[in-house]
Predict the structure.
Amino acid sequence: MQTTHKIAVDSADAYSEYLTSTSARGDYYTDGPGAEEAGLSGATAQSRWHGSSVMVASLRVLPQGPVERDDLVAVMRGVSPVDGHELRPTGGNGSRVAGIDLTFSAPKSVSALWAVSSPYERAQIEAAHSHAVAGTIERIERDVELVRIRSDGVLHWEPADRLLAAEFVHTSSRLTRDQERGGVPDPQLHSHVVVLGAERADGQFAAVDSRELFRSARANGAWYRAELASGLQRLGVDVQGRTGRGERYFEVAGVPEKLVEHWSARAADIDRAARAFRTRYGRDPKGGELSSIAVGTRGTKTSAVTVDVDQAWRAVGEEYGLSRGRAQSLFAGSDHTRELGAPSEADLARELPGELTRERSVVTDRDMRARAYELAAGVCTPAQADGVVEHLVRSGELVALEGGLWTTTGLREREQRTLAVADSRTITRTAPVSEESLRSARTEVQREIGAALSPEQCEALQTITGRGGVSALVGQAGTGKGAVIAAAARAWEREGYEVIGTAVAGATAERLGADAKLEYSATTDALTARASNGQTRLGPTTVVVMDEAGMADTARLSRLVELTARTESKLLLVGDQAQLSSIGAGGMFAALQERVPTAQLSEVHRARNGWEREAWANVRDGQSQRALASYQAHDRLHISDTREKAAQQMVSDWNAASLERPDRRTVMLTDASNAELDRINALAQHARARAGELGAREMALSSRPYGLAAGDEVIFAAALRQPGEERVENGTLGSVVEADPENGVTIQTHGARPRELSMTADESQNLRLSYAQHVYKAQGRTVDRAFVLAGGWQTDRETAYVAVTRAQERTDLYVSREDLGEQGMDTGAIERLGDAMAESHAEQASITIPERESDVGRIMQEQDRTEHDRDRELGHTIE
């Protein structure tokens, strides 16, 4: 991996001490006989300088090291170690950053192999690591716009001609607290590359833009890993790609997993600190925060106990099945040739387009390159991965869009096909209804809801039952979409049409079916599958209503549009693009609205207070500061010092409201982690137990910090399938009727199809308390009061809008000064929260973004620049 850490000038001395000090307890360098025998002596020195020969010579230092501490401190302070003259000016505020530490760490299995290997093999691994680091620095120089240039009064960014950096190779991790009491550090081969400045194209020495280094960290780290994997393969070491979180990493094949876990104590420390960060702030660490966590959890590299580290490492390796002899055999694993059936560049070319649009319809150039390098580990070099990208661009499989964005031809063609099908049906009169049926349907629904449909709702009803084989109903939160859908369904049924309800989520489909009184509703996947195999027949007398269509990804929505067109069925898409988007590549619902007959609902009926309706509109429009000012003015915005205290206050207020009126429908919402959700639910359960509202017996949940007792409110976290019984959908709410510690629980489900069912202890493990829910699960729900813990790592315009629009009577927001980085300053905290709530992350279909006129010229230039080196290394190009 690669982490990025900014070093302040006042930390220059201490950081230089940390970088340049060595320890017999772990930091090992290839200066011994093994390195000489391998012909690699000096190739991976303890430290070395990176930069142009002219730049390094001007500092009067040795290019290949070692890096002397006094020289490093001087350059970190921005002055020459020769005569003290200023190398680079201070910033506009008079301050200067000493350097930016890019830390490149080999995968733990690589460090494990290194630890138990002979000096000769260690030298080979270190050489591969050194080559990967140097290649990554070259990549940064070539591709990352690090230098700010002002030309004709306009500031722009461009790549550096060369970087000036100092590299320090360390081979052990920092001691954990347990190890500091006499243990042995874990082996960890890594390099600290301290970027000290950049040489511009005009020969001037300048500071680098740290933001670009942070932004490019994923791509840089992926390049390093792919280069290292390739180097190890050239040594005969087999590697396995697509490991770890998001399948972004690689490991050495044959290194025992248990050994890797054992030697990951430092990584476990960082992971625990990251979890603590999530607990404290309600979000994942981002930007430089993870690097700060890594620095903050450092121990020392020495202890009072003298230990032969190499001997200790070999003993541990043998204990876990990786002896020196076994390690030596791993260097002949692939016999320097690719095994039959191993992935190739051609496989990467086939796989990459689908990977790029797995979650988003469009990606940035930076993310596209990063994913290519991640998939390249164990397949090819990162330079070859660049060649794959260029090949895909030339072949037209990757499409360049304006704004530096990319998509795939497959996805874009699917979007175009979907729009074309919808376009072709705009003038058809599918599933027409008479005015008499509309009047009768309106009368029936108005009687049921106890209120007249508004003029806006009546107009929407006319639109969606009018022309068009595909039509859309776009309704802001709380505008009464359900009443319009119900009236339309009654009108269609009076004319003899079968109305089928569908949604991506099963619980949403069930709720739609119950609210509109439909005979059949199902998930979109189930409906399209049943229609394909003939179990469900669609035709000209069928109307399909899809609720929460904005949450449908392009693939699902496309299948449904094409299915209803093929069967000449009517399709009504219902949703709101301002609410939560699809998990996968999406944005098509918003695009379709521009092509098909669309009704708009904007008059909010859910909120009973006028000021709150206005606040909802402000959140929707990105005017979150105004909305927060309104909530604060009406004593609905509660600010605590820490997120933990904010959560506690929210639970306390929720409990008081529930005790005051037990019949009131309430929910607590959070946009942060599942761990936080569990803690809030545990607090709520404890409050109910203290009030005597829960049974005495409790059935344990193995993965949760609580069990289930009679009286608890729960949600199904997965669909439940019992023989001979109708499936219970994921997201269904219920109450615990009885809890048996040994035999499971009895649940009374709520909502569309209420029923009582018994669940075994194993089946019950997929139940969760529902006093607090994630915002994503709450879209489509209506309650009396909502309590929202805001400011989490997923806070954006869409999640905020859904969260604040669930309640009819009142919504309270809970935030923390600590969470928003404004200790003791409520105004600053509110402003930061408003900024997060205003930022939109809505999915955007690629078809809504124009293509760039031509990207071939740039690709040609990039290819020409690297063609010679790549051909020399690879000996072939992609056919």
